[in-house]
């Protein structure tokens, strides 16, 4: 009896998976005309490889409804990739079935393209055409790439500001965009910001879909997705503030919390240009991965949320602040979890790339915030897991990893700093790229922080924006790009600061 039941469940799982594959089976029902434009959330691309990339869209004529206004029926989505912006020279095309179980999202994995060049793409469904997106393939594996321009951002709280930063990011014409976490915020709607979240705090799939529907309706965000391929990682707010593993700040029953995490991860997958094998299974979704850009760069993308152990020295904490304590340096406790940490060390030890860019959620450098009660570390980021940071720095040093550079987000401030094991001997530089709209700290606070932490070379908390990185075989130039004000939809941009890292010479110079 139980054997038959397992067999049946197995078959059901296979069928559910088949619905997500590019399907030759397209019932007439799936080709019905749609009365309203289903492409309200724009288009996106990501995960560029030398031969292809992922193309994404989600059908949602009513993006603030849990089902996007689509009902339960599957719909056929046709796609095409061309060598020109007017899509006259189409080189690949096909169809995929958008199904309600995946929120009518599609994740098309294009293959067979040429390395290191631009392409344009478009979707059609129900008698409507999507906007045209631009994307590109990565260079050939062994190509000697002369130059890469990328932009990176994080933390776009919808209520806190407008996303004028994306106007300038698009004008900067990056080859690649990295988003380092806090793509949505989960808090319930308030009237305190410049715009309003949908009312309820999401706790289930319907709620998270509505939240992504609100965020992804923004035309500036859509334009940024349509301009270049994105590589995305999440931080905490894609689920809930300060969560780690199966633990939230309220210490909700772990089984119940994991149901929420499963819903949040499913909604994240449905709204991001990720490969289909990353689709979550229950509350688990593997997000850490590498991206190679010829011989010029390898990016290591980390997930510092899902695999971490419980909060460091929680009983001694006051909010996030903890004193120094044995758990903080316990080698058995990794911010990455054992499997991801072993994977990262192996990738670093074997990388042949000129630049090795660690793309992650936070500021990696040791930060102390001196307080009279001796609670000077945060237990939410790397300082709560100092052993993990040490292991990465030792790997960079001992394996002679070529030109490590760190990019980060989370703290809503622009910070540039150096990472070292011995004072005065930098091993890597790191650049935290501000926030797209989430509010940061005052510059008076940032000056105090910088004074207490000599590894920090530049801090600025009052401006919103993004980071721009220009990589060549000889150098890495990072520019902090700040909008004048994120409280208005359009705002001019300026360079807050510019930094240079010379290949072969760790440490940064302020230009
Ligand atoms: Fe944030
Ligand atoms: Ca965060």
Topology:
Blueprint: H1 2-18, E1 43-49, E2 52-58, E3 75-82, E4 90-98, E5 105-110, E6 118-125, E7 128-129, E8 133-136, E9 148-153, H2 165-171, E10 176-179, H3 205-216, H4 219-227, E11 230-232, H5 254-271, E12 289-293, E13 297-301, E14 321-322, H6 338-350, E15 355-359, E16 377-378, H7 386-398, E17 404-408, E18 414-420, E19 426-433, H8 443-452, E20 456-460, E21 464-471, E22 475-483, E23 493-502, E24 505-510
Parallel strand pairs: 9-10, 10-11, 13-15, 15-17, 17-19
Antiparallel strand pairs: 1-2, 2-5, 3-4, 3-6, 6-7, 6-8, 9-21, 12-13, 14-16, 18-19, 18-20, 21-22, 22-23, 23-24
Bound molecules: fe (iii) ion (FE) and calcium ion.
Fe (iii) ion (FE) is lined by residues 155, 182, 237, 410, 412, 438.
Protein architecture, described:
19% of the residues lie in helices and 28% in strands. The N terminus is likely disordered. It is built from 8 helices and 24 strands. The chain has 2 domains: 135 residues, Sandwich (Immunoglobulin-like); 270 residues, Purple Acid Phosphatase, chain A, domain 2 (4-Layer Sandwich). A hairpin with a 3-residue loop joins strand 21 and strand 22. The strands form 5 sheets. Strands 11-10-9-21-22-23-24 form a 7-stranded mixed β-sheet, with helices on one face. A 7-stranded mixed β-sheet has the order 12-13-15-17-19-18-20. It is of the alpha+beta class and 511 residues long. Calcium ion binds next to loops.
């Amino acid at each position: 009896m139980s054997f038959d039941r397992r067999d049946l469940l197995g078959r059901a799982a296979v069928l559910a998976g088949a619905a997500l594959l590019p399907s030759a089976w397209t019932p007439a029902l799936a080709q019905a005309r749609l009365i309203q434009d289903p492409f309200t959330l724009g288009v996106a691309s990501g995960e560029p490889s030398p031969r292809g990339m992922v193309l994404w869209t989600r059908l949602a004529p009513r993006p603030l409804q849990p089902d996007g206004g689509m009902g339960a029926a599957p719909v056929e989505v046709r796609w095409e990739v061309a060598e020109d912006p007017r899509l006259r020279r189409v080189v690949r095309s096909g169809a995929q079935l958008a199904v309600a179980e995946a929120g009518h999202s599609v994740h098309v994995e294009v293959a067979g393209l040429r390395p290191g060049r631009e392409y344009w793409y478009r979707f059609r469904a129900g008698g409507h055409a999507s906007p045209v997106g631009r994307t590109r393939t990565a260079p050939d594996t062994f190509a000697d790439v002369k130059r890469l321009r990328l932009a990176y951002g994080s933390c776009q709280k919808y209520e806190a500001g407008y996303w004028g930063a994306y106007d300038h990011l698009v004008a900067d014409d990056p080859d690649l965009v990295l988003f380092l976490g806090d793509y949505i915020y989960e808090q319930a709607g308030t009237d305190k910001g410049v715009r309003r979240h949908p009312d309820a705090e999401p706790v289930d799939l319907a709620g998270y879909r509505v939240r992504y529907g609100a965020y992804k309706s923004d035309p500036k965000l859509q334009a940024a997705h349509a301009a270049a391929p994105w590589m995305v990682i999440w931080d905490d707010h894609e689920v809930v503030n300060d969560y780690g593993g199966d633990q939230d700040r309220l210490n909700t029953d772990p089984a119940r919390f994991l149901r929420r995490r499963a819903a949040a991860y499913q909604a994240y997958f449905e709204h991001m240009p990720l490969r289909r094998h990353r689709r979550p299974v229950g509350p688990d979704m593997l997000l850490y991965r590498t991206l190679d850009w010829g011989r010029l760069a390898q990016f290591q993308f980390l997930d510092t949320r899902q695999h971490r152990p419980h909060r460091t020295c929680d009983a001694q904490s006051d909010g996030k602040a903890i004193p120094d304590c044995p758990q903080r340096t316990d080698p058995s406790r990794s911010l990455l979890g054992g499997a991801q940490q072993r994977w990262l060390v192996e990738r670093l030890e074997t990388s042949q790339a000129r630049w090795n860019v660690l793309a992650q959620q936070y500021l990696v450098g040791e930060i102390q915030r001196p307080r009279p009660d001796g609670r000077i570390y945060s237990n939410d980021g790397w300082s709560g897991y100092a052993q993990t940071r040490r292991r990465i720095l030792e790997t960079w040093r001992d394996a002679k990893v070529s030109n490590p550079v760190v990019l980060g987000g989370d703290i809503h401030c622009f910070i540039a700093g150096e990472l070292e094991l011995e004072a005065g001997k930098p091993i890597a530089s790191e650049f935290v790229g501000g926030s797209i709209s989430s509010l940061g700290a005052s510059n008076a606070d940032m000056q105090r922080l910088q004074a207490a932490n000599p590894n920090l070379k530049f801090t600025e908390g009052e401006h919103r924006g993004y980071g721009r990185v220009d990589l060549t075989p000889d150098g890495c130039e990072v520019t902090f790009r700040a909008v004048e004000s994120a409280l208005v939809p359009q705002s001019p941009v300026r360079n807050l600061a510019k930094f240079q890292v010379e290949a072969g010479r760790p440490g940064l110079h302020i230009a």
